[in-house]
Amino acid sequence: MEAIALVAFGVFALLDWLAVSRSVRPVEYVAKPATLLALLVYAGCGHPSPWLVAALAFSLLGDVFLMLPADLFLAGLAAFLVAHLAYIGAFAGPVMPRLVWLAVVIGALSPVAARILRAPVAVYSLAISLMVASALASTSSLAIAGAVLFLVSDMLIAWNRFVHPRPWAPLAIIVTYHLGQLGLATALRG
User: Fold this and answer.
1) Around Cβ 58, how many Cβ atoms within 10 Å?
2) Of 44, 61, 153, 154, which residue is 20 to 30 A from 162 by alpha carbon distance?
3) Are 110 and 126 in contact (CB under 8 A)?
């Protein structure tokens, strides 16, 4: 079942990337949630913590909110905020290294964040920064890569939405997002 779920994740992710690159919304409406659903099944084939299951479930909910034609940006942002808090809960380890890495992450993001931050986005940015800091403190290369890719995806969304839209951004956003989620799920599924 694990291999089937992983293959399904790959197939649906590729379909979603193709749909996004060609603006084929009906395919995206199926492929985007199916990708995260397959990843949730893949994670469940391990021994995932309830935190990981919650992180993926809220990410799936956020995906649905963000892809719908209505402007549900804040609902999507809230769902992903909860997902990041769940990812933070999935990382075990002492608090002090996380705080040190949090300061490093915030310092590194400050020049870009200053151009894109809005009040709700600021709270969300703190949560994703702590998630990345937690991954860094874990020293798991796969978790670090996944968290950084997720962060890149979110920074691209913010830049594209609030600063300067780019035609290549939607594809870059979805590719880094899916690969980031895969890295986090694989590292944390136990």
Assistant:
1) 20
2) 61
3) no
Cα–Cα distance, 45 to 40 (Å, whole number): 9
User: What's the chain's average pLDDT?
Assistant: 93
DSSP structural state of residue 109: H
Q: Where are the alpha helices (DSSP H) in the chain?
A: 2-22, 25-44, 50-67, 73-90, 95-116, 119-138, 141-158, 169-188
**117-to-8, 24, 51, 73, 158 alpha-carbon distances in Å:** 36, 30, 27, 14, 8
Separation between Cα atoms, residue 109 and residue 186, nearest integer Å? 26
For tokens 């089937």, name the residue: 4
Chain center to CA of 70: 21
Residues 6+ apart with CB under 8 A from 55: 83, 84, 86, 87, 90, 184
Per-residue pLDDT tens for 3-47? 999 999 999 999 999 999 999 999 999 999 999 999 999 999 999
Cα 76 from chain centroid (whole Å) = 12
Residues in the chain: 190
Q: What count of other Cβ atoms lies within 10 Å of the Cβ of residue 93?
A: 11
Task: Give residue for tokens 């379909």.
Answer: 15
Q: Is 95 exposed, middle or buried (0-12, 13-18, 19+ CB in 10 A)?
A: exposed
The CA-based dihedral angle spanning residues 144, 48, 57, 158, taken in that order and rounded to the nearest 10 degrees: -10
